[in-house]
Amino acid sequence: MEELLLARWQFAITSTYHFLLVPLTLGLSILVAIMETKYVRTGDALYKKMAKFWGKLFLINFSLGVATGLVQEFQFGMNWSEYSRFMGDIFGVPLALEALTAFYLESVFIGLWIFGWERLSRKMHAVTIWVVAVGANISSLWILIANSFMQQPVGYILRNDRAELNDFTAVLTNSYVLNQYPHVLLAGLVTGGIFVMAISAYHLLRGSQVDFFRPSFKYGLICALAASLLVAGTGHRQAQFVAEAQPMKLAAMEALWETANPAPFALAAVIDQQKETNSAEIGIPNGLSFLVYNSFSGEVKGIKEIQAQNVERYGPGNYIPDVVPVFWSFRIMVVAGMWLLLITMISAYFLKKGRLESYPLVLKAVLWSLPVPYIANSTGWAVTEMGRQPWIVFGLQRVDQAVSPLVPASAIWTSLIGFSVVYGIIAAAGIYLFAKFARRGPEEKAPDASVTPVKGATLWN
Questions:
Q1: Distance between CA 228 and CA 223 in Å, rounded?
Q2: What is the pLDDT of residue 104?
Q3: What is the mean pLDDT of residues 365-391?
Q4: 149 and 266: one domain?
Q5: Please, are residues 356 and 422 in contact by the beta-carbon 8 Å criterion?
Q6: Which pLDDT band, with edges at 50, 70 and 90, does 1 fall under?
Q7: 76, 121, 156, 320: which one has the fewest Cβ atoms less than 10 Å from its Cβ?
C-alpha cells in the first residue's frame, strides 16, 4: 500500500505541474496567431509588436511544458508497469501519434517562427504560428483520446489478460472525448485570454505603454469572454454525459448518498464518508435533476445504490471514490468559472463605455484574477481523475492492479523527491522569467507622465 500511495502522489504532483502549463499553451498560441494575422492583413506594426511580445511569453510557457511533460511518459514504465502491460496496445497508439503528428510539428514550426521573422514573407511567417497553434491543440486531442479510453473503454477486446485494440475508429470517436475536448480547448482560450488581460491590466494601472496594452487587453477580453460563455455550456453537457457514463463520479461530485427523484444540488455539505452521510447540507431543491435532465424532475442514483450495483457487477470491493475532495474540487471549479465570466463581463461593460481605465478597482480585480483559471483547470482535472477511482481504466483495471509490483518504496521516494525538487526549480525559473518579461513589456519605456500609477498594482513582486 505504501508503494501504491507514493506512486499516486508522484504522478499527481508531476501531472499537476505539467497541466498548469498546458491550457495557456492551447489558448495563447491561438491568440498570438490571431494577432500576427491582423498584422499581415493591416500592415500595422502594433500587431507585429503584440505578436512578438505575447509570443515571447508563449515560448517561455511552451518550453516549461515540454520540460515537465517528457517525464510523464517515463512513469508508465517506472511506477505503473502493470498498467502499461495491460493497456500498452491501446494507450501507446495515441501517444505515438501525438508525437508524430503534433509534437514534432510544433517543434519544427516553432523554430521557423522564432528565427523566421525577417527571413520569411509575412504570410508564410503567419502560417508557421498557425501550424504551432493547430499542432498544440491536436497534441491535446491525442492525449484526451488516450484519457477518454481510461474513462470509457471502447474499441477493444480482452485477450491474454490484456486490452487489445480492435477498432481504432471507435477509439477516435469515443463519445467521452467528443464531450471532453471542446471543454478543454475552451478552457485553454479562457486561460490565454485572462493571461493577456491580467498583464495588460498591470501596465494600464501603472500607465505604462498604454497604447500597446489597451488593444492587448481588448483582444484578451474578447477571447476570455466568448470562451467563458461557451465553456459553461460545454461543462453542462459534459456533466450530463458523466451522469450516463460514470454515475458514481456524478454522485461523488454531489455527495449524493441516497437515490433521489428529484435530486437537490448541494451548494455545501459536511461530509462523513465513513458513515456514508452528510451531517449538514445546503442545497438547491431539484437542482441536480435539472443539471442532468434539463428538467426539475428525474431520478439520480445515489452512491450507496451504485456501490451495490458495482459489487454485483465487478465483485466485492469498495468502488466509492474519495468524496470530499471530489465534491469540493467541483465547487471550486464552478465558482472560479463564474468569477471569470463575471469579471470579463464587467470589464467588457466598462471597456465599451470607454471608462475602463477610470475604474482601477476593475483592473486590479483582473490582475489578481490571473491565478483563477489555473485553479479552475486543476480542480476540474482533479474531479475527472479522482472521481474515477478506484479505476485506472474504468471497469477494466483498478489502480491497485496497475502499480509496478517490484519497485520498492525507497526507489519511489527517491524519484518523487528528485522530481519535486527539479520541478520546483523549473517552476521558480518560469515564474521569474514570466515576471521579468511581463513587467518589462515590449520595450523599456517610462510610464506616461499624465497617468498616476495605482498603488497595489504588482505582478509577482
A1: 8
A2: 80
A3: 92
A4: no
A5: no
A6: low
A7: 121
The reply to whether 117 falls in a domain is yes
Exposure class string for 151-190: b at 16+ Cβ within 10 A, else e: bbbbbbeeeeeebebeeeeebbebebbebbbbbbbbbbbb
Report d(CA 210, CA 207) in Å as an integer.
6
Are residues 222 and 357 located together in one domain of the fold? yes
Residues 241 and 302 in one domain: no
Position 450 scores a pLDDT of 47
Same domain, 316 and 186: no
Give 127-192 as a DSSP string. Answer: HHHHHHHHHHHHHHHHHHHHHHHHHS--SEEEETTEEEES-HHHHHT-HHHHHHHHHHHHHHHHHH
All cell numbers assigned to 228: 467563458
* Cell reading at 348: 467588457
Is the separation of the CB atoms in 386 and 371 below 8 Å? no
Whether 446 is in a domain gets the answer no
Buried b or exposed e, range 437-459, using 16+ CB within 10 angstroms: bbbebbeeeeeeeeeeebeebeb
Could you tell me if 305 and 352 lie in one domain?
no
Give the residue among 370, 459, 437, 445 at the shortest CA–CA distance from 207.
Answer: 445
Residues pairing with 266 in the sheet: 283
- Spatial separation of the C-alpha atoms in residues 344 and 433, rounded to whole Å: 26
Nearest Cα neighbor of 253 from 195, 301, 293, 213 is 301
Which structural domain, as residue segments, surrounds residue 192? 2-245+323-440
Does residue 416 fall inside a structural domain? yes
Residues 397 and 87: beta-carbon distance below 8 Å? yes
Judge whether 277 lies within some domain: yes
Type of residue found at 169 = T
Structural domain count, the chain: 2
Tell me what pLDDT residue 423 has: 85
In terms of domains, do 50 and 171 share one? Answer: yes
Cell of 262: 428529484
Report pLDDT digits (tens) over 297-327: 888 898 999 999 999 999 999 999 999 999 9
